[in-house]
Write a structure and sequence with these properties.
Elements (H helix, E strand, L loop, with lengths): L16 H23 L3 H10 L10 H32 L10 H26 L3 H7 L3 H5 L4 H6 L5 H20 L11 H5 L1
């Protein structure tokens, strides 16, 4: 309509440099505060999130759950020790690869040294895991001295000072650990670790 005035929309005021810099500082600070709060939430925060999200899986609290977790870890660690021992110690020894003058002897001995140290480490972890289950703990406890006797064999393998008794010691301890697990309802199966696990 002629003569009618249309209301004017006020144009937005440009933001000053000061306001922009405050916003640029405030945003990262808020994000950092939120991330820190989420990461460092104590027991109260964990309880609150558990009540909001019922599907969140809580840490094992019951005795039966702890025992099951102990058995699972025992089986995993003992299985890795058994796999490393068979793959890089027993098998090459039986194939004659550790004998002087054999093809690939140096590489096989280095691998056997790594496998020996790895197997010892995993067996120690398995023995520790066994303590979480009374039956398994009772079965594994007598084997700790045998496990401890393997401590320096990794170095011995690496230096090429390996004999039938050393290979036999590993085999014997592994078989005893497997039998102890079986008797306590925690059957151990060989799991060959990757090369990165062996060296890591």
């Amino acid at each position: 309509m002629p003569g009618t005035l249309t209301p004017r929309t006020p144009s937005p005021r440009p933001l000053s440099r000061k306001a922009l810099s405050r916003g640029a500082v405030a945003l990262p600070l808020c994000c950092a505060l939120l991330l820190t709060t989420a990461a460092c939430g104590g027991d109260d925060g964990a309880g609150a999130s558990a009540s909001v999200n019922p599907s969140a899986s809580p840490a094992p609290s019951g005795s039966a759950e702890r025992q099951k977790l102990a058995k699972t870890r025992f089986v995993a660690n003992a299985g890795l020790a058994a796999g490393a021992t068979y793959q890089w110690i027993v098998k090459p020894y039986r194939a004659g690869t550790f004998k002087k003058g054999a093809d690939g002897r140096t590489f096989a001995l280095v691998k056997a040294g790594l496998a020996g140290a790895f197997a010892y480490n995993r067996l120690k972890a398995a023995a520790e895991n066994a303590k979480g289950d009374p039956l398994l703990s009772k079965a594994v406890a007598p084997l700790t001295a045998g496990i401890d006797s393997l401590k320096d064999l990794g170095t011995k393998f690496r230096k090429g000072e390996v004999g039938e008794g050393d290979v036999g010691a590993f085999e014997s301890v592994i078989n005893s650990v497997k039998e102890a697990g079986r008797s306590a309802g925690a059957e151990v199966k060989d799991q060959v670790p990757s090369t990165s696990q062996l060296g890591g």
